[in-house]
User: Which sequence fits this backbone?
């Protein structure tokens, strides 16, 4: 795939169609049916023609709402083929939140799969494959939309109005090429769609990178990740790699399945992105699955991938860094914060947030704390907005989590700040475990490995932790839950 001028999102399958149209592009996990690149191209063109026939013109905005199914892929590429700007929409969002996004993006209609959920009643929904499509609503295009814009991605903001990030065809071409080249993806590779395709991680690093390299992608039967079907899906598609967030890696470690060892033995690599992965978990994954874990670092404002560990990197690099910048990205550390610049960095935000919150003179402040070693490898040490201020001492919760995750019996852990009238905030750890955890022993372990002000003053034990749609720890909900349920002396030291 070349990052040439004029490349469009729909061109992502062009080389594969020309080179081997009979190669399998998509596996449908529900019926174990397949769709070749040639068949995919035909469905994309037919749907694109219908979009045009229903009055949508290049530059108009349309939303695509479907699980990880064939309909999502066809809808995305068809809208791109028609020159439309696409809004990937999370099917699980409540109707009011969907309405908010549709209104902000000025979407004229919603392309859906066969099982649309939480519909916005007065918005036209066009089910791919249906004979009847209602008329599209009339909407002005969002302020600031550009001629090369291909996608509008919503940030996962948990409070206030979500921000709209425009992805251009050019930035997508660079980003997808970067993923393909970083991992050496080719037509001999295959994977399973673990991450939701409406999110940048699943969209760029899984779907588009696979299609651009001519590989095969398994779409799970339920349209989403399931630990119970994952290994059979991997076996069916002949998977050689997969990409996921740390939460899912841990789930797979905790729920071994029949056939796992033989499947894992043929994996070339395992990619981890979107949140920090503890060193001990990385080593365990590599032992159990028999493949190197390659950590990557990305964000929506950089068209997903910013840096990644390469397959050829040494173990120390794999365990302690997120690798070197990719996609022509330049990274610098300014006052402890990671700043980046490059062709995949977006120009800013659309709508009420405006471009003023975007890059400053070509540089984007990531909001992440980090360091760069003498070889150019980047280490992310925390998130500025997550810092806990305990009496003036700044505590990075990610650092505390990395340490406590090494304690026996701890499956996952979340660290947040609890409001306190004396110190401002106190450090609270919420430990997820299926077994009883010795809180006193865990506290002693923390004291031996952390600075005094980093040691959690409250430790709660739970069977589950709240997560975001992409599987990250939801710190806002966790903090709210802790404040709402905390009572003096309950499950704490």
Assistant:
């Amino acid at each position: 795939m070349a990052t040439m001028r004029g490349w469009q999102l729909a061109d992502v399958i062009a080389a594969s169609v020309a080179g081997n149209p009979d190669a399998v592009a998509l596996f449908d996990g529900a019926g174990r049916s397949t769709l070749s690149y040639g068949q995919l191209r035909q469905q994309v063109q037919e749907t694109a023609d219908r979009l045009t026939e229903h009055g949508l013109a290049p530059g108009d905005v349309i939303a695509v709402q479907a699980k990880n199914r064939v309909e999502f892929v066809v809808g995305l590429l068809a809208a791109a083929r028609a020159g439309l700007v696409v809004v990937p929409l999370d099917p699980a969002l409540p109707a009011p939140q969907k309405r908010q996004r549709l209104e902000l993006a000025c979407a004229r209609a919603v392309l859906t799969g066969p099982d649309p959920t939480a519909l916005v009643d007065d918005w036209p929904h066009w089910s791919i494959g249906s004979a009847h499509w209602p008329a599209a609503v009339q909407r002005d295009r969002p302020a600031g939309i550009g001629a090369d814009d291909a996608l509008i991605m919503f940030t996962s903001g948990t409070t206030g109005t979500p921000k709209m990030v425009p992805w251009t065809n050019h930035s997508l071409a660079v980003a997808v090429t970067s993923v393909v080249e970083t991992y050496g993806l080719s037509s001999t590779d295959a994977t399973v769609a673990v991450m939701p395709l409406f999110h940048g991680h699943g969209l760029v690093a899984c779907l588009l990178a696979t299609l651009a390299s001519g590989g095969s992608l398994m779409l799970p039967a339920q349209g989403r990740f399931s630990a119970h079907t994952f290994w059979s899906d991997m076996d069916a598609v002949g998977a050689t790699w997969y990409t996921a967030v740390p939460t899912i890696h841990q789930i797979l470690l905790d729920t071994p399945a029949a056939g796992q060892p033989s499947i894992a033995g043929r994996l070339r690599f395992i990619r981890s992105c979107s949140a920090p992965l503890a060193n001990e978990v990385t080593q365990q994954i590599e032992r159990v699955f028999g493949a190197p874990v390659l950590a990557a670092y990305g964000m929506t404002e950089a068209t997903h991938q910013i840096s990644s560990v390469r397959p050829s990197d040494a173990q120390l690099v794999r365990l302690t860094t997120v690798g070197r910048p990719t996609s022509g990205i330049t990274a610098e550390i300014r006052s402890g914060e990671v700043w980046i610049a490059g062709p995949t960095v977006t120009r800013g935000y659309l709508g009420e947030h405006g471009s003023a919150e975007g890059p400053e003179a070509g540089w984007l402040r990531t909001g992440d704390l980090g360091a760069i070693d003498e070889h150019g490898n980047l280490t992310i040490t925390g998130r500025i907005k997550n810092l806990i201020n305990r009496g003036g001492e700044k505590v990075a919760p990610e650092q505390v989590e990395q340490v406590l995750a090494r304690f026996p019996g701890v499956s996952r852990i979340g660290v947040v700040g609890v409001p306190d009238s004396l110190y401002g905030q106190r450090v609270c750890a919420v430990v997820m475990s299926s077994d009883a955890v010795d809180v006193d022993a865990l506290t002693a372990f923390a004291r031996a490995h952390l600075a005094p002000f980093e040691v959690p003053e409250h430790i709660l034990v739970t069977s589950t932790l709240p997560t975001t749609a992409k599987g990250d720890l939801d710190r806002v909900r966790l903090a709210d839950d802790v404040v709402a349920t905390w009572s003096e002396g309950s499950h704490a030291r």
Notes: The CA atoms of residues 270 and 293 lie 5 Å apart. Confidence is low (pLDDT under 50) at residues 487-493. The first helix runs from residue 14 to 19.
